[in-house]
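Dear colleague,

Thank you for sharing your sequence with our group. We've completed the structure prediction you requested, and as agreed, I am returning the results in plain text so they can be pasted directly into your records. Please verify that the sequence below matches your submission; if there's any discrepancy, let me know and we will rerun it promptly.
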Amino acid sequence: MALLLAALIAWPAGLPWMKPAAQGLLQHLSLLFVPAGVGVMLHLQRLGEEALAIGVALVLSTWLGMAVAAMVMLALMRRAGVADDATP
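Please find the predicted structure tokens below.
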């Protein structure tokens, strides 16, 4: 999909040629989730045994990712000279 997007940006006249390929990928996108579903079902007992560790890792990594994204955004806003009204 990323290659199709890059090709479309570089060559907009190619849309009629690319449209069938993109529609085919989108129609069968759900097939990409089958291996993940099979993996979950195969290791369901292990996931149950380690649910607490997995949950903690998911929550902490989400918070860390959001914090890093916020810090990067603030740094870029300061660099661009945008006023930071939320900071006391």
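Summary note from our side: The mean pLDDT is 87.

Kind regards,
the structure core
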